[in-house]
Amino acid sequence: MKEVSLYQEIFDELEGPVEDLTGEVSNSKLKSRSLKYETEIPKLEQMCYIMESVLLTKDEAEGTTVYAGFQKVSRAEDIWDRYFDLADTVDQIYLFGEDDATLKAHPNIDFIYLPEGHELTREWFLVIDQPLAKSMMVAYDLDGFGVYEDEKLRNFKGAKSNNPRVIKKAIDLLEDVIDSY
């Protein structure tokens, strides 16, 4: 399987300082079109939820492809019902992660099982490719699993963008991984 780090390829594409998103952060900050950040899991969950909600509330998400990286497939268990709903509205979802859980199948969801040690197993990402609107976030796990008793305390450094050029680069990288799967 092709090795790639979405974080390493995308982070420097965005300008601006790295913002600290720990503690209290407004939804408007999490909705930013372009942002470099450091944060913990709850803010990443919020950011992804905001991005995913756009697809759930659209009447028509035809032509949309979603690329979601959870590090480990088991990290998607708590939101699997939402992903099932997403899969009913979009054309395709590719879910990347280590094969550590079996989730209920959906015809519009393909699992891309990452081998242990693959660079993407340190990254959490969501790339939404819609015909008229594109968005993405990627975050690198600074701590790794097993450091904290409460995994939600893990620290991440990442970037968020709506720039079509940056998102195309991310999609091309992920498609290369899919093609090599």
UniProtKB/TrEMBL annotation:
Source species, domain of life: Bacteria
Domain DICT per the UniProt entry, residue ranges: 42-140
Pfam families linked to this entry: DICT
Protein name: Putative sensor protein/domain protein
Lineage of the organism: Bacteria, Bacillati, Bacillota, Clostridia, Halanaerobiales
